[in-house]
Amino acid sequence: MQHFCRLCEQLDIAEGGPGSRAILQRYFRDAPAEDAAWALFFLLGRRPCRVIGARRLRAWAVETAGWPGWLVEESYRSVGDPGETLALLLPAPSRPRNWAFADLIRDRLLPLEAASPARQREWTQQTWEELDGAPRWLWNRLITGAFRPRVSCQQIVLALADVSGLPPAQIAYRLLEAWAPTPASYRRLLAELSTDADLSRPYPFMLARMLTDPVESLGSTADWRLEWKWDGIRAQLIRRAGRCLLWLQSEGLFTDMFPELADAAAALEDGTVLDGQIVGWEKGHPLPSSKLVRRMTGQTRARRLPLDPPAAYIAFDLLEHQGHDIRCQPLAARCSILKSLLQPLGAGPGLHDHARCVPARGESCDVTSGSPIRFSASLPAQSWTDVRAFISGARKTGATGVTLRRLDSVYDEGPSACVWWECAVSLFTIDVVLLAARSVRDRGRRGSGPFTFAVWHQGELVPLARADLELDREETDALESYIRHNTIERFGPLRMVRPELVFELAFDDLQSNPRRRCGLAAERPRIVRWRKNASAAAACTLEQLRQFLTARCQGSANRAVPGPREKTIQH
Length: 571
Hints:
With 571 residues, the protein is of the alpha+beta class.
């Protein structure tokens, strides 16, 4: 139990950074198979049903400790985590026991679900008398369903690959199978190579670079294929040996997140690998990639209906055809084969009718007709003036820019490949006020947050977005000093600060979100700079943002709206 608690503490400190892989590698190399199997189960975001609610757990803890309820509330305001608060308030264990992690799950956690309320209370209080410190806190998080691993699935796959010596693709593929948290299942996961190695293998992704020079520097438009760049998730769709796999560039193999795409891929020829983007859509309009995040979490990675939001796969390249690697063929030939493959499926040309220069939002085609696997058609550009028109009008289609790919290019994932370019639309920026912050140093990584930023509404600040800060050493030290000396209230690790510091916040677009206090959500918020000489009173207002959103929906000129402004930012 202590071994897994140390793992969780180290992962919290690493915050999903590059050190997480080494931390996981050490744990899976040293832990017994019984403990490692359950650790993997919980780290992947899987967990039994929520056994005990937080309110009931707090009532039992108050009774056990003999503390008044108001003291628990005040302690929670200081600690910030209900499970940790209760673990600290409870008396020292009267019957300490060194539980093995697998034994605690098998003998205490799993039986709780079918037990009566009285039995649940008895076992929970008995476990409190046997655990102390971090194990007790972890127990509280597990039985209330509040355990959230701070590590990505990709890091877990890479660590298991390091321990087993197997390719990461094969580890990711095996995790899709009927995997159970048992020692035998865990050992099979790390077993020697088998026939599933080639089946699960994706190709290295070829990346596009941001174009900073004028588009005219690329030569003739006849040499290039112009396509919309969607706000989606880059993925390879693999159809081999009767199986359909969806390999995400950033997260690994997650076929079960998008079962409608896997079902549609069953109509493809065996030995086919597509490269493209997964795009969320609703009522014929593309959605920001943030809308797909909840389909990527552990709780919703089960095959369930309805699928919200629905997804389409926009295929823009073909890497494998009839089991043969065709990456060495020119892009024009690969796209021609790709189009002929998708046409029999009833797959239309992407999310929009590309026959017109820039379709309006109301003219989007509905991807519910035909297959959700769509072909990314080429935009008709006869001159660089047309290309610039597509770039400037990308927002009207819901795209984030355009992509330029040389027609004679091969699929080369090497860093020297400069034949794919992206031209992104300019971002919107506003001035916001820092409202709350966690530790600036963030327990190991300098200058990261998250931080909460707000705008004005009727004389008070309302939260708009949370974003990280990337500051130099001098600014980091100055900001940390300010937060330490200007904290007006604390909620555990969260500090409410005096609303005096102004930052420039950039975002892709603005959407209505009634679930938030301000009623708005900024897409992909990030901080551009610290505006040290700006006044907090002159920051953006909620009314300005609402006017901006209304004008955007009506297609009005951006510069006619006060507050948000367009700005070209290179990343």
